[in-house]
Design a protein that fits this description.
Blueprint: E1 20-23, E2 26-29, H1 30-38, H2 46-56, H3 69-80, H4 86-96
Antiparallel strand pairs: 1-2
Helix pairs in contact: 1-2, 3-4
Length: about 100
């Protein structure tokens, strides 16, 4: 199921939703993570659509540990600098999985 910006947010009642993801004691519903990511996109975007699809299919998970907005913005900016592809999704996933301790 491809999920776009139209399918998330407060007006999405009755539309498909994403399930939550657990990581130890840190919990962020996938929809909330996608909403957070959407703030880094100004309008329709092939990059955002590829992220939404990867999250919906479970290929991209939320960060292993909470990230600041600055850290997430840097990861998204790097992702947006290259054409969206399975490899760039995997690279972003690896960036989100880094242990920041």
């Amino acid at each position: 199921m491809a999920v776009s910006r139209r399918n998330v947010g407060p007006r999405s009642q009755g539309r498909p939703t994403l399930t939550g993801q657990h990581s130890g004691d840190f919990y962020l519903p996938a929809k909330d993570f996608l909403d957070r990511i959407s703030r880094f996109f100004e309008g329709p975007s092939e990059h955002f659509d590829s992220l939404a699809d990867a999250i919906a299919k479970g290929r991209l998970k939320h960060p292993v540990k909470p990230m600041t907005d600055h850290e997430l913005a840097l990861a998204i900016r790097e992702f947006r600098n290259v054409p969206p592809s399975p490899d760039t999704i995997d690279k972003l996933g690896a960036d989100l999985a880094k242990d920041r301790d």
